[in-house]
Amino acid sequence: MSIFPSKLATRQPFVTKLLTNAVTRGRLCHAYLLSGRARSDKLEIARNIACFLNCANVAAGNPDDACTLRINADSAQKVETGIFCQNCRWIWDGKHPQAWLTLAANEGTKSGKISVEKARKLSEELAKESQYVRVVVIEEASQEIFHRPAANALLKTIEDPRVRCVFMLFATSAEEVLPTVVSRCQLLPLYTTDSLGLSLNHADFSNYDPNSVKLAKELIEKYIHRNDSQSLSRIIESNKVLSELVTDQFTTCDLVDLLIGIEMQRLSDRAVLNPALSGYSTRLIGLAESTKEQLEHYVSFKAALETFTIAWWRLACDTVSTGLNQGAMRVTAQRDVNMHGSGGR
User: Which CATH architecture has domain 6-189?
Assistant: First the structure.
């Protein structure tokens, strides 16, 4: 089962599966850092977590009847909360006095930063007992807003809260956040699709040119997971060929989507259930999102693509060297080749 509505789970399959697994197995972390550009999805994920953890139906032993699983609207549309239990209704509306807490800069302040006083008050509030699971949202966790003095006032609480509590911090990238904060969080990069909108849930490459799909699969299946200098040379050569496919209709961001989509679909649910694969997938999605952000700032698409694939190769090799079963990944790859063929559908 998923603890998230189907439309959100479709947009963010990796993060929603990982969090569902953590909640249902009782392994929820104290703090998560949600990175990426999908801002509305971050807030929706936090709301769904808070609702599920405090839902009257779930508490009564009916997790499949969780209020938020009835949501059919997209994140941009207004959710009708009249059918929710009181806790879920208050949380979704941002009005629950204990289960939904936020930390933000005071409006109209000159500094635009979160004050140390507000951080300390929140820490004091979280020291009090409550019958609810507190979800604390910091919508802007970059060090420009959540600066060192305010962060220091909360670090101990983030790392080891005295009560049932989950911090959900938002940032465009982990690099924007203080390292002392990042080290206390599990990083969850959210994915944004580009013009061709490839889903990470389904191996549907129908919007892609078959030759592009074939070349992308060859790059991943033959070279990305091989730790030798020849593979690196072939990756650089493959980049040159892939770069020639980029057009106004098939952008570099679309190409990054295609590469990540193929890899995530090869890994399937193993990316969530296997800790080594989960960490690998998290870093890979974060790397892809950082590349897309660079491209938006007019970085050369050839340079961005080469940097991305080389960094990916190093990540894959490091993951294998730290205990990832490379053979299992190749079996998964071969299974997908047999199912879908080497070209696009």
Answer: 3-Layer(aba) Sandwich (3.40)
